[in-house]
Amino acid sequence: MKIELAPLPYDYTALEPKIGKRTLEIHHDKHHAKYVNVANQMIEGTDMEKDDCATIVMKSHKAGNQGLFNNAAQAWNHDFYWKCMKPGGGGKPTGAIADQINKDFGSYDEFKKQFEVAGNTAFGSGWAWLSWDGSKLVVDKTIGAGNPITDGKKPLLTMDVWEHAYYLDYQNMRATYCTDFLDSLVNWDFVNQNFASAK
Amino acid sequence: MLSLLAAGGAEAFSAFAPSLSAPKSLRLRQESVTMSSNDNPMSRRAAVVVTAGLLGSFLAPKESKAEGAFSLPALPYDYKSLEPYIDEETMKLHHDKHFNAYLTNLNKALEGKPAAKLTDIQKEAIKAGPAIRNNGGGYYNHALFFKEMGPAANSGKPSAALQKAIDASFGSMDKMKEEFNAAAAKRFGSGWAWLGVTPEGKLAITSTPNQDNPLMEGCEGQKMIPVLGLDVWEHAYYLKYQNRRPEYITNWWSVVNWEAVSNNYEKFAAKGIPVEVV
């Protein structure tokens, strides 16, 4: 089956004033859409034609097919990223993830610090991740289309730090975007769902 | 046209007025924490604009700087001079924020180290580790980039020697641009496209990721001395072009200053010398 471009889980204006309507329109309808289209073109007529996106990511990574990996992984990453946000989100989590954060990081503030560092130090284009590695939570950064599933980890939360994710709203101030993401946008319900599946 | 003397060691800084006017679609955040750990205190005290009438004198108070530290080269033209191809807003951010941050972080990374030529720093940059690789590369690349551009009216054409070299390697200017544009469009994520002289003395095109450049030993792609580079980091074009990178690439040729590029070629690259940008 083809990789799908799912609609945003909310309106294009929903994340204002942190992430603007124009950003979401271009980010979803242009950038994300292109990755989906190109990946679909590339898998046509191959043995991956009927695979789901995650499988294509793994197979292309294993095969060293950088072009397909870049597009399939970016399709996966963006689909995940939209769900990681919600209007009125952010702040301290509750539920199982909150307990695990305290356990593995000591406190939410320490997790926040590490996640922001990951976002701010992913040089160039990349992503910050909170993942489950099988026994504990880990914060990582990846470059380009990189994704922790190729490392055998289970992603729980991601933040896009490619400049296209924040430039219209924040210009060079990536650090402010990272802080706002955590303070105002994170959909901790989605993170808790992912955590429940991962554990 | 804004032009400033940068006599050895002198610096020119220009900073935003807090109430920077912006197009409607652009939301500017209040200046707060940036990635640079050495925030330029000048931008907090006052907005200072250095104007053409003050050649050789600087209103902006200078930070005391360490012996051997690098400086921010002034733009050789006004921020709006590259309109409509590159917008004023982008030029301000690109030069005063992004370029300046690489400079600040490079100087920080070089603290306590013996003074070195910027071109020598490029050669060893990958071995020297991420701080010098990313910021040393960023500083060099942007210094080259801003110097090689200018108002469209002054774009001109390559010198006879450069044109000859282009024709020899590519067949024609159009063919060279085609190959260059493809390299620039194809670069995934952040990086640069380059036209330069290979160790064999021929012009060629390559691209590098992030702030790497072909002067760096161990860099991706063709080893060469770059004479012309195009920044394809999204910050270079996103305000005006958003996802439309190919349009940015095509339009950018209008602001390439062929006199500067020809100079890079004849004075440096064709002689096997890395271009000196500061």
TrEMBL record, chain A:
It is an enzyme of class 1 (oxidoreductase). It comes from the Eukaryota. InterPro entries: Mn/Fe_SOD, Mn/Fe_SOD_BS, Mn/Fe_SOD_C, Mn/Fe_SOD_N, Mn/Fe_SOD_N_sf, SOD_C_sf. Mn(2+) binds at H27, H78, D160, H164. Keywords: Metal-binding, Oxidoreductase. It catalyses: 2 superoxide + 2 H(+) = H2O2 + O2. Residues 93-194 form the Manganese/iron superoxide dismutase C-terminal domain. Belongs to the iron/manganese superoxide dismutase family. This is Superoxide dismutase. The lineage of its organism: Eukaryota, Cryptophyceae, Pyrenomonadales, Geminigeraceae, Guillardia.
TrEMBL record, chain B:
Residues 70-149 form the Manganese/iron superoxide dismutase N-terminal domain. Its EC number is 1.15.1.1. The keyword Oxidoreductase applies. It is an enzyme of class 1 (oxidoreductase). GO terms for cellular component: cytoplasm. Coiled coil: none annotated. InterPro entries: Mn/Fe_SOD, Mn/Fe_SOD_BS, Mn/Fe_SOD_C, Mn/Fe_SOD_N, Mn/Fe_SOD_N_sf, SOD_C_sf. Residues 158-263 form the Manganese/iron superoxide dismutase C-terminal domain. It comes from the Eukaryota. GO terms for molecular function: metal ion binding; superoxide dismutase activity. Keywords: Metal-binding, Oxidoreductase. Belongs to the iron/manganese superoxide dismutase family. This is superoxide dismutase. It comes from Guillardia theta (strain CCMP2712).
